[in-house]
Amino acid sequence: MFRKNEEHRQQSFFSGHYLLPEELQERLLTSWAETFYQEIFCRIDEEIFAPLYSEEASRPNVPVNVLVGAEVLKSGFGWSDEQLYEQVCFNLQVRHALGEDDLRGEIFSLRTLYNFRRRVREYEEETGINLYQKVFEQVTNEQLEAVKLATGWQRMDSTQVLSNLAEMSRLGLLVAVLQSVHKQLPESMKDEWAQRWARYLEKRPHQVCYRIAADEVEGHLVIIGEELCAVRAALMDQAPESEALGLIQRVLEEQYEQDQNGNVHLRPEGEIGSDSLQSPHDPDATYRVKGGATYAGGYVANVSETAEPENDLQLITDVQVEPNRTDDATLMEQSLDDQARRGIEVNQVTVDGGYTGPNGEAACAKHDVTLRPTRMRGGQADPDHWGWKEYTWEVDDDGTPVSVTCPQGCTATVFPGRAENRFLSRFEDERCASCPFFKTKCRVQERKRLSPTLYVTRRKVEIALRRQQMSPEDASIRAVVESTIRSLKRAFPGSKLPVRGLIRARMMLYPAAMMVNVRRLHRHLTEEAEKAAQEAAFSFSSLKTAVFRCLKSIHRRFSSLTPQSTAISA
C-alpha cells in the first residue's frame, strides 16, 4: 500500500545534528547535505511512484523519497549498493540528506531497494514510462522556477556510455548466445542439449574460445549456427512461447544466411549492422564508431542545459538516453518535444555539427527554435576551391536562390536546373576571363559554346547561408557543456555504467543529472549566503562608523565651547 513520507518534517530529540556540538551542527546545516535535502529530497513527488504499489490495505511502503534519494546519491558518488548502504547507516550527512536524522529510525534493506528497482523497470517495460525521468523532470522544473532561471538559450551535447559488458569476439558472442539459450530452455530439454553442446557450456565464453585454434574459428561459427537452427526447430515444436526463440531468431538473421536447401552460411563481417546484438546479456546495447573511437555495447546520453549569460548559474534541463547509434538530431528533437511538453521555453540552442542537417533543422523549425551550430555537416570546401560560404547568396522567402555574387564581386542570376532542387548561374565571359582565380579557386566552370556556369544544389546554398550566420561566441558557449558531460559521468570510470540494459542505464543517468544540478545549486546558494553575510557585516560596520563619527562630532562641538558660553546656553 502506498503512503507518502511526511515523518522527516517532524524533528526528533534523537536527530543526529542535535547530538552534535553547536559548531558541527552549523557545518552540517550549511553542507551539501542540507541543499540535497531541500532541493531534491523535499521536492520529490512520491505520487509519481504510486502505480507501483497495491491499492488494497496492506503493509505501508518504505518511503519512496528515501529510495529515490538513495539512488541519486549512488549515481552521484559512484557507490556500489553495499557502499551506499554503509553510508546510509553511518554517515550523518547522508542520513540528513535523506531525512533520516532520527538515529533510532529503521533503515531500508538492500533487498527493498532491489525490489523497488525491479518494479520501476517492469513498469517501463509495460507502459514505456520511465519514472526516474518523470521525477527528474518534476524536480528540475521546480528548481528552475525557484531560482528564476531563464531557459530561452540552451546548449546541448551528447556522450557515449558503455553497458557493463565484457568485450567479446564474434565467436565469444555466439558461444555466450548458446549458453544463454541453454539457460532459457524448458527443463525437459536441458539435459539433451547440454550433452550436445558440452564443449560450449563447460566454461565461460572467453575460456571456451581460448581453447579453439585460430584456423578452427570459422568452422565453429558455422557449427553454432547449425545448432541454433536445430534448437529453434525443437523449440517451435515443444515450447513455441519460449523467450529463447526471439534471441535465436535475431542472431540467425544478423550473423547467418540460409540457402534454399536450409544450409547455414556465415555472413561477412561487413554485412553485419551496427544494431546487431553485442551481448545476450544486454539486447539493447548497440555498436558505433564516432570520432574514430569504437563503442561496442553502449548507449548515448544527450544533455541540455541553460546557457543564458545573465543567469547566476546554469542547470541541466533535460536528458535523453538511447542506443548509441541514435543520431544527435533525433535526440535534439526528443529534447525539444519533452521541454515543450513541460512548459520550458526554448528560443535558441547552441550545438556542434552533429545536430545539424535536415532533421535537426526540421526539429528546430517545429518549435520555432533558432539553431546556432558551431560547425556544420556537409558543404565542406575542397582545399583547392572556395567554399560555398565564400559566395554571397540572395534567396526568396521560400529559400530558393535568386542571385549569387562570387568572392570577386561578379553577380549573376540563379535559374532552376533540369533536376529538382538544382540550380545554375551564367557569368560574363569577359569578367571570368580576366579573373586570376578562374579555373583555380573559383567554382564557376568553363563551358564550350556557353558562358562560364556555376552549378549548385538547394542544400549547398542552405548550408552556405548557415555557415555565414554562425557566431564566434557560440564556440565558447557550447564548450561549457563538455564540462557538464564530464560531471555527469564522473562516477562512471571509463564511461562504463555498472548496469546493463537501456532501462537500467536511464535509471542511473537521470539521478546522475539530478546530482549535477544539486552540486551547482549548493555552490550557488553558498556563494549567495557568503555574499549576504559580507553585506550584512559591511552594513553593521558602516553603522558603527556612522555612530562613532556622530559621537565624535558631538564631542568636538561641546569641547570647543567655553565655560562662559556653556553657562549662557544653560
Per-chain topology:
Layout: H1 22-29, H2 32-39, H3 64-77, H4 81-90, H5 92-97, H6 110-127, H7 131-146, E1 153-162, H8 170-184, H9 187-196, H10 198-201, H11 205-210, H12 217-238, H13 244-255, E2 256-258, E3 264-266, E4 286-290, E5 293-306, E6 316-323, H14 328-341, E7 348-351, H15 358-366, E8 370-373, E9 392-395, E10 401-405, E11 411-416, E12 422-426, H16 429-433, E13 445-447, E14 450-457, H17 458-469, H18 473-488, H19 502-560, H20 563-569
Parallel strand pairs: 1-7, 7-8
Antiparallel strand pairs: 1-5, 2-3, 4-5, 5-6, 9-10, 10-11, 11-12, 12-14, 13-14
Helix pairs in contact: 2-19, 3-19, 7-19, 8-12, 8-13, 12-13, 14-15
CATH class of the largest domain: Alpha Beta
Query: Which structural class best describes the helix and strand composition?
Result: alpha+beta
Strand content: 5-15%
Shape: flat
Detail the poorly predicted runs: 564-570
Distance between the ends:
85 Å
Radius of gyration: 33 Å
- Give me the CATH fold name of the largest domain: Nucleotidyltransferase, domain 5
Largest sheet: 6 strands, mixed
CATH 2nd-level architecture of the largest domain: 2-Layer Sandwich
**Helix-residue proportion:** 40-55%
CATH superfamily of the largest domain: Ribonuclease H-like superfamily/Ribonuclease H
The total beta strand count reads: 14
Number of continuous helical runs: 20
Summed up, the domain count is: 4
Summarize model confidence as the mean pLDDT.
Answer: 89
